[in-house]
Automatic annotation (TrEMBL):
Protein name, entry field: uroporphyrinogen-III C-methyltransferase
Similarity section: Belongs to the precorrin methyltransferase family.
Gene3D superfamilies: Cobalt-precorrin-4 Transmethylase, Domain 1, Methyltransferase, Cobalt-precorrin-4 Transmethylase, Domain 2
Keyword annotations of the record: Methyltransferase, Porphyrin biosynthesis, S-adenosyl-L-methionine, Transferase
GO molecular function: uroporphyrin-III C-methyltransferase activity
């Protein structure tokens, strides 16, 4: 097992190897890297956590109402009532903002001629896996020109710093056990502001159309006559694999790559049922949102024929300064993740290509054997 805080800090970790029976790929067992970590790496998370004081301060416009105590913005809410409090505090300001936009629209302020105005545009913008330097130029331009931005939990604070000074930010993130807004409410927010003539940006971590529900939002808005433009982002699989030097496909080693979600919409097909088709040793498997179901998924993959010593890596907060990762073999992956106490967001990559990473223990030996075997 290898646990590191970030790739750039790899050299600062002390390495200790535990030798035992050689693996199929010629790798003597798992190398353990012991790194010094502190709680500050968590408190300085680049992601917009729901109960973060900084998040409330940044979005304070939402909570500055005459009927509510402004001190609420500086205190964590009770977990059982945070959603109700959010809605109660946000609605007055949201209605006020909508009213201003509609008044401007009715007065012809949008074109200065008193004529009718068409609806605004909605942009679904992918912000990548976390590193703001991975944004596209087009994404930056749209972020800086928007009137209102609805953003998810996995949009980094560095990305939010790019928002224009006159724009409004609204948190609509989801995490396990808590949705600040239902998907239906997000649809209605996007529709209401677009109909009022605003330029609305929906910021999503990764790519909007890769496990980001961008397709649902696009379909809903287009059915309502709203023009939707998608600005792709670097999905976590590509961004994190590149950071670690893992080719998702490689001639003679992996001829395909498969993206799999670790959970599905309530009432949908259990993603674990796809293990029979996903257990291909000549393919790369990338699992999004799979921490809770990984133990079952790993067992099913091995049951359906994927070798237990298949290289794998789990990456928490990939491409950010808080990145932590675990390199190990499939049979040990669930236990090593638990031992390292990785938390969401964590991406999991399973396949022989993982051994091509320069950070895989004994990677030079592993890579040589893989290349010779192809």
């Amino acid at each position: 097992m290898a646990l590191v805080n970030r790739v750039s800090g790899f050299s600062s970790c002390s390495v200790s190897s535990h030798f035992g029976k050689a693996k199929t790929f010629g790798l003597n067992p798992i190398c353990s890297l012991n790194c010094t970590s502190s709680s500050s790496s968590y408190s300085s998370s680049p992601f917009t956590e729901k109960h973060s004081i900084e998040r409330y301060q940044r979005d304070s416009w939402v909570y500055n109402t005459q009927v509510e105590d402004a001190s609420l913005c500086n205190l964590p809410f009770d977990s059982n009532s945070v959603r109700e409090n959010d809605i109660a505090l946000q609605l007055p300001e949201l209605k006020k903002m909508l009213g201003v936009l509609r008044e401007k629209r009715e007065s012809g302020g949008c074109d200065g001629g008193g004529g009718s105005c068409g609806p605004g545009n909605v942009y679904l913008v992918g912000t990548g896996p976390g590193d703001p330097e991975l944004l596209t130029l087009k994404a930056v331009r749209v972020i800086q020109s928007a009137h209102l931005l609805l953003y998810d939990r996995l949009v980094s604070n560095d990305v939010l710093e790019l928002v224009g000074p006159d724009a409004r930010l609204l948190y609509v993130g989801k995490t396990a056990g808590y949705h600040s807004r239902t998907q239906e409410e997000i649809h209605e927010l996007l529709l209401s502001f677009a109909e009022a003539g605003a330029t609305v940006v929906r910021l999503k971590g990764g790519d909007p159309l890769v496990f980001g529900r961008g397709g649902e939002e696009m379909d809903f808005l287009q059915n309502q006559g709203i023009q939707v433009k998608v600005i792709p982002g670097i999905t976590a699989a590509s961004g994190i694999a590149a950071e670690l030097g893992i080719p998702l496909t490689h001639r003679g080693i992996a001829n395909s790559v498969r993206f799999l979600t670790g959970h599905s919409r309530k009432g949908g097909t259990d993603p674990l049922f796809v293990a029979e088709n996903a257990a291909d040793p000549d393919s790369t498997l990338v699992v999004y949102m799979g921490l809770s179901t990984l133990p079952s998924l790993a067992l099913k993959l091995m049951h359906h024929g994927l070798p237990s010593n298949t290289p794998a890596v789990a990456v928490e907060r990939g491409t950010t300064p808080q990145q932590r990762l675990v390199f190990t073999e499939l049979k040990n992956l669930a236990d090593e993740i638990s031992s390292a106490e990785l938390v969401s967001p964590t991406l999991i990559v399973i396949g022989k290509v993982v051994a091509l990473s320069p950070f895989w223990p004994h990677s030079s030996i592993e890579a040589s054997l893989l290349v010779e075997a192809k």
